[in-house]
Amino acid sequence: MAGPVALAGAIRVPGDKSISHRALLFAGLAEGESTVRGLSRGDDVRRTRQALAEFGVRFTDEDGYLRVLGGLREEPSTVLDLGNSGTAMRLIAGVCAGQDMHTVLTGDRFLRARPMDRVAVPLRSMGATVDGRQGGRLAPLSIRGGNLSGIHYASPVASAQVKSAVMLAGLSAAGSTTVVEPVATRRHTEEMLALFGVDVEVDGTAVTVRRSTLTPAEVDVQGDPSQAAFWAVGALIAPDSRVRVDNLYSGHGRTGFVDVLRRMGGRLDFDRTTGTLEITSGPLTAVSIGAEDVPGIVDEIPVLAVAAAAAEGTTVISGAEELRVKESDRIKSTVAMLCAFGVHAEETPDGMVIEGTANRRGGEVHSHGDHRIAMAAAVSGLAATGPTVIHGWDAVATSYPGFADHVAELSGGAARLREVTS
Ligand SMILES: O=C(O)C1=C[C@@H](OP(=O)(O)O)[C@@H](O)[C@H](O)C1
Ligand SMILES: C=C(OP(=O)(O)O)C(=O)O
């Protein structure tokens, strides 16, 4: 791929990945027929669907929507392979803890290296038997569930996945289950449980559920803000660009990237009612990003770092140590990606320091099996001089299989991505 190119036009990004996982899980738990529209087509969400099918949930693909016949009727007869998806593994662990069944969860080599003790610890204290490699810290995880008691859990990490796993187990536990977060995270589980008829109490950063059954529902999944962030940064840094993204989810904890890019001086108009985001290219200035910002931009930091590399001044990101336990160590892989474009960037224990420069040349980047690093590198390449090569591009299929088509569409065919096998 050779830049720089201008981006122009209007697109719809895929259905939100976090919401898609939950739509399938909650439809799977609700006895009866639910429907889901606008589901993400990425591999991560496909893994959640496959896992639910092993419990006896039935899916029928209709024209433009998915029909789900819910109810966990069967103990899975095989190991559930959740591919690259941390959300699938942690949320399904919560579901399994509530079932009188034995389940084994595994994933690819990246997922098997990510910490699972953050869910194993609270699920054990509710009464589930959870084991795995390194004393239950790493998958494969073995879970024997059922007979749970509610807990009051002060989570040491600001993680919507941990919160959701405990809440899902709480739906089958005696008494009430409360999770208190150190910083509020995305609220998809709270919002969607309410849609499926569950009473959820939210009090600041505390959320409480009781033993409940779910009622089937119709879910319409809106566009994924984390995917829109790639086009927002691309349109800001590629000269003469103007892009519109339609039908975005605009709820709590997901649109922090719009605020950060505005703080950098970016021209973004966001209509939260319609979910329409319009971006016009223009100069950016460095910004300081701290721990309080991180939960709202946790998946967008690699691409926000690309914006920082094109901004005037030095950007400092701190309080982002959670990035070290994502699909890759995203502090390391983001800094390496920026350096490949000739940018001066350095790791810190909990973030990075990035010196903005107008002289970015195309480079050779490794995704480290991480979809967001691959796509952030592609965006950087669109606004750099000379060709960019991204090894391990196949990782993009986990969340955004149509990304390359959108590059071609928004660049009017001027930019083309060609896969190179690493
Ligand atoms: O709950 C979710 O759907 C997610 C929560 C975040 O992870 P953590 O909760 O572990 O921070 C995020 O990084 C992930 O992409 C999706
Ligand atoms: C961290 C991510 O997802 P997960 O934790 O579900 O693998 C992501 O999509 O950036």
Shape: globular
Backbone structural class: alpha/beta
> What strand line-up does the widest sheet have?
2-15-17-16
Query: How many E-type strands?
Result: 24
Going by CATH, the homologous superfamily of the largest domain would be Enolpyruvate transferase domain
Bound molecules: shikimate-3-phosphate, phosphoenolpyruvate
Based on CA atoms alone, the radius of gyration comes out at 21 Å
Low-pLDDT residue intervals, each spanning 5 or more residues = none
Main β-sheet: number of strands, strand sense, barrel status? 4 strands, mixed
Task: Count helical runs.
Answer: 14
**Share of helical residues:** 25-40%
CATH class of the largest domain: Alpha Beta
Number of domains: 2
Alpha-carbon distance between the two ends: 16 Å
Main location: cytoplasm
InterPro entries: Enolpyruvate_Tfrase_dom (IPR001986), Enolpyruvate_Tfrase_sf (IPR036968), EPSP_synthase (IPR006264), EPSP_synthase_CS (IPR023193), RNA3'P_cycl/enolpyr_Trfase_a/b (IPR013792)
Subunit structure: Monomer.
Protein name: 3-phosphoshikimate 1-carboxyvinyltransferase
Short description, anyone?
By secondary structure, the protein is α/β, with parallel strands linked by helices. The protein is built from 14 helices and 24 strands.
